Amino acid sequence: MSERNPLSTPGRRSWLPKVAVDSETFGVFAESFARFMGTAKFLVYMTVFVIVWVAINLIGLFGLKWDPYPFILLNLFFSTQASYSAPLILLAQNRQELRDKLSLDEDRRVAQQSRADMDFLAREIAAIRMHLGELATRDFVRGELRSELRELAERLERADEKKESQ
After folding, report:
1. Which of 33, 34, 39, 113 could cross-link to 92 by cystine, CB 3.0-4.6 Å?
2. Please, is 30 exposed, middle or buried when counting C-beta atoms within 10 Å of its C-beta (0-12, 13-18, 19+)?
3. Is 166 helix (H, G, I), strand (E, B) or coil?
């Protein structure tokens, strides 16, 4: 007995031929095609193409008239172009979305690292400030030495006075 995939899992179509397509190359092609379709140059080319097509088929330039008035063949070309354009544009958008996600993830990682670095530096600065508070400054040492010198001078004076009084 063969095991069947559940309906939620897409199955492989064995009757379709396997086609090897480099997704990166095709993705680059889709992006460049989608980018080109969004330009004024593309609109001008399409407009010129339609005008020439209609002119040839209405007037019969060069003795050609292969698509009479309702221009069914021209509509078929437009439908075919639209059916290929939409998936190519969606593919290009998906690739751009993936690039944006990767960029956002990298920005998030850099921001987290920056935050961790800033927190570390803030702790280091706080520790330095605490240690500086415990260190004796030059003015503090001078003041302490002056008071010790005064006390020493007073003791010497008292000692001299004691000697003289004896």
Report:
1. 34
2. buried
3. coil
Token code pair at residue 122:
């803030």
pLDDT digits (tens, 9 = 90+) for 34-77: 888 888 898 899 899 888 888 888 887 667 777 777 888 888 88
Buried b (16+ CB within 10 A) or exposed e, 54-93: eebbeeeeeeeeebeeebeeeeeeeeeeeeeeeebbebbe
pLDDT tens for residues 81-120? 888 888 888 888 888 999 999 999 999 999 999 999 999 9
C-alpha span between 67 and 46 (Å, rounded): 17
Spell 140-163 as b/e; 16+ CB within 10 A means b: eeeeeeeeeeeeeeeeeeeeeeee
N residues, the chain: 166
**Residue 45's CB: how many other CB atoms inside 10 A?**
12
**DSSP state letters, 1-24:** -PPPPPTTSPPP-TTSPP----HH
Rounded Cα–Cα distance for residues 161 and 166 (Å): 9
| Residue 67: strand, helix, or coil | coil
